[in-house]
């Protein structure tokens, strides 16, 4: 449209304003269209031609309906005409169709034109193509709400959908279900075969998950090897809803169990643990729902993995107890509620060589809590760090108090160190500071680590162990045989000692497999120049078998149960003073 033509179509003052904006419209590539009152097109500009594909002679005399995409409802147009009638102006987003048939989004501004007498004389519309903007917008949306590796919705979008489902579920009275799916032993695959192969497996899992759900359900990746599935519109009856949710969970486990061909012809068999929690409307918050599904998942893993578990009331009770335990644990150090027990370690001649410190929690007015019931919680919450430091300091103070006594100064004190504690960046400093503060002999301090610590960040673990070895501290590998560490793998770490887990010792005289394992551990430990301690020795037959097969160090009820430190000290005193009677051997230490 030439300047002249356009001017001809815009005789009024208002048209002149639009005319003045023309340069701007052309600059931003906006199309302009002028019609009379009956919407017959009088004029268009060059940008209109570029945008819609229509030539001037094809469009003059037509109405803008020629551009309609069919996507807008009659109500949409009714509102638009209403606004034009009342305000003389309308603007908004609309989908139109190009001559070639392509539908595209545009931003459209329409003004009513008036003649000099102020009477409406026509319409002027300006519009621009906003498809690029929309595309960018949707890309940003995608990045924010989808996992880039698997293209599944991410945790954020899952939370959003859970919230929506809660709202709509209230109206429909139907149940929904949240399934949290954890891939068993994924970390081992990732660490041994590499992250590329791990990624490949995650993508395959995402595809298979989608096969197991309906259009209205959501499969999401929560992060790492954890996926989630939200099922909607299940039965109003909780039992029937649970049956449907279980069927989906089983289908998922079956689907994931089919072999996956990974790179280099590696065939992988995958299993999954699934935790399920049902919801109905707004009966629980999203946070509670996630927590419940997590607890159920934990139970599935506890049941040996490759299993599905539903959250139920008994679990809720456990959850409440756990919350109470955790809040109590937070104050336990300040309230001085931790107590250390010691359990004797003896040599083949049953002579005392040292003791292991074992923690107990004695909340005021409540029964004593054993470590297996609070250490995992202390690890999860991070409380194990200050607690572990307290144990370490107590051990160092004890070693110092033994240093001047010839009957005690050669005894070792073993302290259990949890993985989370060891992973503290300043762990080496913490240990050396405790030794220095109390003036303890570091050569008598033994730190017990478990195999789980050895699976990750090997270099860092070896570095810290070496630094502590230089100080004189030595290391024992606790519960050996229950984890993944092989003896060959062990050579990488500067251990001085292995402790054979007591689950092997228990049936050593009746179970030939356990006996064979223990014999192998002793033989290989000896060949690697590691001393071997048998844990949990309870009777003479076990002891005799172990001695016969070359085991030299022992710990177990047979030589003494764990006893409070003052009792242990008293027994030591009795040992050095032959006149003092030895306490009850059931709780004390049976002496040679
Ligand atoms: P652990 O280090 O393997 O300790 C040996 C466990 O076996 C102790 O359980 C001990 O009482 C028990 N035990 C020893 N001899 C026998 C026996 O002859 N028969 C039987 N049935 N059991 C025996 P406890 O004291 O309940 O400790 C359990 C675990 O808690 C410990 O296993 C250790 O992993 C952890 N733990 C204890 N104290 C601490 C601590 O201060 N810090 C950390 N991080 N963990 C600790
Ligand atoms: Mg131990
Ligand atoms: Mg142990």
Total count of strands: 21
Give the bound compounds.
ligand C2E, magnesium ion
CATH level 1 name of the largest domain: Alpha Beta
CATH architecture of the largest domain: Alpha-Beta Barrel
Strands in their spatial order, largest beta sheet: 13-14-15-16-17-18-19-20
Q: What is the domain tally?
A: 3
Topology overview:
Elements: H1 3-9, H2 13-27, E1 31-36, E2 41-44, H3 46-52, H4 56-59, H5 74-87, E3 89-97, E4 103-114, E5 120-129, H6 131-145, H7 155-172, E6 175-183, H8 186-193, H9 195-211, E7 218-223, E8 226-234, H10 238-257, E9 260-262, E10 266-268, E11 272-280, H11 286-302, E12 308-310, H12 313-332, E13 338-347, E14 352-361, H13 371-381, H14 384-402, E15 412-416, H15 419-422, H16 427-438, E16 445-450, H17 458-471, E17 474-480, H18 487-490, E18 497-500, H19 502-506, H20 512-527, E19 531-534, H21 540-548, E20 553-554, E21 563-564, H22 565-576
Parallel strand pairs: 11-12, 14-15, 15-16, 16-17, 17-18, 18-19, 19-20
Antiparallel strand pairs: 1-2, 1-5, 3-4, 4-5, 6-8, 6-11, 7-8, 9-10, 13-14, 13-20, 13-21
Helix pairs in contact: 8-9, 12-13, 14-16, 16-17
Bound molecules: ligand C2E and magnesium ion (2 copies).
């Amino acid at each position: 449209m030439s300047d002249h033509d356009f001017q001809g179509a815009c005789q009024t003052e208002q048209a002149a304003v639009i005319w003045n904006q023309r340069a701007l419209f052309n600059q931003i590539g906006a199309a302009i269209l002028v019609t009379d009152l009956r919407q017959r097109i009088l004029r268009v500009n060059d940008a209109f031609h570029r945008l819609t594909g229509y030539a001037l002679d094809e469009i003059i005399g037509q109405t803008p309906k020629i551009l309609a995409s069919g996507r807008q409802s009659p109500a949409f147009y009714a509102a638009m005409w209403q606004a034009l009638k009342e305000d003389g102006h309308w603007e908004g987003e609309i989908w139109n169709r190009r001559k070639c048939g392509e539908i595209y989004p545009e931003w459209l501004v329409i003004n009513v034109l008036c003649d000099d007498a102020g009477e409406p004389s026509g319409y002027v519309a300006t519009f621009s193509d906003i498809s690029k903007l929309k595309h960018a917008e949707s890309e940003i949306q995608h990045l924010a709400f989808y996992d880039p590796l698997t293209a599944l919705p991410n945790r954020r979008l899952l939370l959003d959908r859970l919230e929506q489902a809660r709202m709509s579920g209230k109206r429909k009275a139907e149940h929904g279900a949240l399934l949290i799916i954890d891939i068993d032993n994924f970390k081992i695959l990732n660490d041994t075969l590499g992250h590329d192969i791990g990624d490949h497996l995650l993508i395959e899992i995402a595809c298979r998950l989608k096969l197991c759900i309906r259009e209205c359900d959501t499969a999401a990746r929560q992060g790492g090897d954890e996926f989630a599935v939200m099922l909607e519109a299940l039965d109003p009856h909780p039992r029937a809803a649970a049956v449907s949710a279980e069927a989906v969970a089983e289908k998922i486990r079956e689907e994931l169990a089919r072999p996956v061909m990974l790179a280099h012809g590696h065939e992988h068999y995958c299993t999954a643990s699934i935790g399920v929690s049902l919801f109905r409307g707004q009966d629980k918050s999203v946070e509670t729902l996630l927590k419940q599904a997590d607890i159920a998942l934990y139970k599935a893993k506890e049941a040996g993995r490759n299993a599905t578990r539903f959250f139920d009331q008994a679990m809720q009770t456990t959850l409440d107890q756990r919350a109470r335990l955790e809040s109590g644990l937070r104050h336990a150090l300040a309230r001085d509620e931790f107590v250390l027990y010691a359990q004797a370690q003896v040599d083949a001649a049953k002579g005392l060589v040292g003791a292991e410190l074992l923690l107990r929690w004695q909340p005021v007015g409540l029964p004593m809590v054993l470590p297996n019931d609070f250490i995992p919680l202390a690890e999860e919450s991070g409380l194990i760090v200050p607690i572990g430091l307290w144990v370490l300091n107590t051990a160092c103070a004890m070693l110092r108090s033994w240093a001047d006594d010839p009957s005690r100064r050669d005894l070792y004190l073993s302290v259990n160190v949890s993985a989370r504690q060891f992973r503290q960046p300043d762990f080496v400093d913490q240990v050396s500071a405790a030794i220095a503060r109390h003036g303890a002999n570091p050569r008598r301090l033994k730190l017990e680590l478990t195999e789980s610590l050895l699976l990750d960040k090997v270099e860092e673990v070896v570095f810290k162990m070496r630094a502590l070895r230089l100080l004189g501290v030595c290391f024992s590998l606790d519960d050996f045989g229950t984890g993944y560490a092989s003896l060959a793998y062990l050579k990488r770490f500067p251990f001085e000692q292995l402790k054979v887990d007591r689950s092997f010792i228990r049936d050593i005289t009746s179970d030939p497999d356990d006996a064979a394992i223990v014999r192998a551990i002793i033989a290989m430990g000896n060949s690697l120049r590691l001393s071997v301690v048998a844990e949990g020795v309870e009777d003479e037959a076990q002891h005799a078998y172990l001695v016969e097969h070359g085991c030299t160090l022992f710990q177990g009820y047979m030589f003494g149960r764990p006893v409070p430190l003052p009792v242990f000290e008293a027994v030591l005193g009795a040992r050095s003073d032959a006149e003092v009677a030895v306490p009850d051997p059931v709780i004390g230490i049976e002496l040679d």
